[in-house]
Amino acid sequence: MMKNITTYQNKNVLVLGLGKSGLAAADLLNKLGANVTINDFKVPEDLSIVHQLEEQGMKVVLGSHPLELLEQCELMVKNPGIPYTNPLVAAAQKQGLTIITEPELAFMVSKAPVIAVTGTNGKTTTTTLITAMLNQNRSQGHAYAVGNIGVPASEIAQKATADDVLVFEMSSFQLMGIQTFRPKIAVLTNLYEAHTDYHGSRDNYVAAKQRILMNQTDEDYFVANFDQAEVRAIAENSAAEVVSFSRKDTADAMVKDGAIYYKNEKIIAVAELRLPGLHNLENALAATSVAKLMGVATADIVEVLSTFTGVRHRTQYVTTIAGRKFYNDSKATNMEATKQALTGFSKNVILLAGGLDRGFTFDALVPDLKNKVKALVVFGETADLLAQAGETAQVADIIYTKDAQTAVKAAYQLSQPEDVILLSPACASWDQWKNFEIRGDKYIEAIEELKTEVEEV
């Protein structure tokens, strides 16, 4: 079903990283006639995948990043998480080698129109909402959520038709490696401080995010959060037609008289939204804008907004135990995400937070801790820093524990009926877990164990 392109035929391509996106990229390149070499610093425990790749005619080099791999190389496809300071990547840049990421390949072969969502927070929820709206009562084709959401885009692009839609969640890391990628609709949810350890500065990070617009023309659309002056300024320089959304001001999609409106049409009362928090109201406004641009009926938009309860690990309601509601927001890997999660709740929050120390304090969280949090359970490398913020905010109880898993019992012991127990770490998970998904899953496991114990008593 994919476009039959000859761009990569007989080209020597180095795929850096043996993860999901790397395997998908290698498979696609192999089908497109490239000479593929895959390199990863780690050696996987299960070598069967390596044998499969070799049987398909690909070369696999594991355990190091030898610079001689660049000698015959004409293109590098890089895992987005590998920084540009990596010696092999730096050497490739120095010799002027083109370096792309897997979404670029997917775009080049896809017959399906492309929608792309980026921003510091809200990407996954907005991507999921858009996909659900596009699939609601759809008579022909299918909308697929791909990219940073965990599904390699080039895997889906191979089978997608012109009747389908690819809804890309795009990280700044992925956007660094695009060249021709051009979404019909681009969405920028918001911009906050994030990933400066990877990009080197906030300016570099924002520049990476803006790349989502770089190939758009006046035939395309840019859905922009006009509650942020920085995003408004970016919109002013956009070649695409700008569609604004705002929960505070007049915009194409806005909140008026307690309801979401799109271009003067009432869509749904805010009270009918199932997702808690002001940040999710913004996500709903962005998704509604895209759905309207794609011709989705208002009734189908309403159906999704009134039933969608959240994405796993993103302010996800888990269960209620003896009157205590548990929420999993493990995806909150920065302070802004935690601040936004707290907006969705009343004052009775027991917050579970902590993780990788990126060298900053949590002073910015103090007002939110003061207004919302009755107890704080901290863990990981940042436990002391979060405890200091809690003390400044005069949080009544601050407890240290090992990790998100052990924090469950500690939080329950501090709690009373009607309390909310919220995992929203404000930090990356890499000091203890491989990713935020594992952290969230371990948290949920601990809640399920606790529920069994409480019910047996």
TrEMBL record:
EC number(s) recorded for this UniProt protein: 6.3.2.9
A GO MF label: ATP binding
GO cellular component: cytoplasm
GO biological process entries: cell division; cell wall organization; peptidoglycan biosynthetic process; regulation of cell shape
Residues involved in ATP binding: 119-125
Location(s), subcellular: Cytoplasm
Pathway the protein contributes to: Cell wall biogenesis; peptidoglycan biosynthesis
Main location: cytoplasm
All residue ranges annotated as the Mur ligase central domain in the record: 117-290
Catalysed reactions, as listed in the record: UDP-N-acetyl-alpha-D-muramoyl-L-alanine + D-glutamate + ATP = UDP-N-acetyl-alpha-D-muramoyl-L-alanyl-D-glutamate + ADP + phosphate + H(+)
Span of domain Mur ligase C-terminal: 313-427
Residue ranges of coiled coil: none
UniProt keywords, alphabetically: ATP-binding, Cell cycle, Cell division, Cell shape, Cell wall biogenesis/degradation, Cytoplasm, Ligase, Nucleotide-binding, Peptidoglycan synthesis
InterPro entries named among the record's database cross-references: Mur-like_cat_sf (IPR036565), Mur_ligase_C (IPR004101), Mur_ligase_C_dom_sf (IPR036615), Mur_ligase_cen (IPR013221), MurD (IPR005762)
PANTHER family the UniProt entry points to: UDP-N-ACETYLMURAMOYLALANINE--D-GLUTAMATE LIGASE
Function noted in UniProt: Cell wall formation. Catalyzes the addition of glutamate to the nucleotide precursor UDP-N-acetylmuramoyl-L-alanine (UMA).
HAMAP family per the UniProt record, alphabetical: MurD (MF_00639)
Protein family: Belongs to the MurCDEF family.
Protein name (database record): UDP-N-acetylmuramoylalanine--D-glutamate ligase
Organism: Ligilactobacillus ceti DSM 22408
Lineage, top ranks: Bacteria, Bacillati, Bacillota, Bacilli, Lactobacillales
Chain's gene name: murD
